[in-house]
Automatic annotation (TrEMBL):
It comes from Micromonospora maris. It holds the Pfam family Acetyltransf_1. This is GCN5 family acetyltransferase. Coiled coil: none annotated. PANTHER family: GNAT FAMILY ACETYLTRANSFERASE, N-ACETYLTRANSFERASE DOMAIN-CONTAINING PROTEIN.
Amino acid sequence: MTVSNHDLLVRPATTADAGPLIGVLAEAFHEGPLADWLIPDPADRRTVYYRYFKDAVYHGLEHGQVYTTGDQTAVAIWYPRLEPAPVDTRSRLATLEHIAGPYAPKFVLLEEMFDAFHPDEPHHYLAYLAVDPTRQNQGIGAALLADQHRRLDQLGLPAYLEASNMRNRRLYLRLGYHAGPTIVLPTQGPVIWRMWRGAPTSGGRSPFPRTRPHRRSL
């Protein structure tokens, strides 16, 4: 389904959109405390991020829901998580080692921490939201989210995400998310804010669910 939100066209992405959307993700996430922690060298980061987000886009197109704008300047990658998702740990470890090389251990640690604190309650998971840096602060990301939020409210489902900086945390709070317990990455890593937009209820929205950390080993 294609949706027009004022002057912004929001539509499902296809494989034909992959190239531009990989670039949007790599550029949008290139700066910030998480990027600095994952790959301190900016030149190496650009190379690794392109490979990492290429994997993310194609995985989202195959297994999730990917939305973009008419001009391909923004992208959202969602995954329905109606039950706990199994993870092929050996395959993922091999993929991360191929993508990140010497930086793979921190990518492994990041994904392991995210998985360990992921809620079990049925929801849709916003894995990535990115807007071309030259088009940020124009309400594009908020419009892209609003499109999915309408669908989730119709389904009676909540949404979950991790925010990696205060700017994004403030955006999600404005859009109806609530902050839950944080994740603090080890080895002097940054704080990650776990965010929850509850399902509509007669009294408002469902609260942030209790999460029992579950471990997996990569």
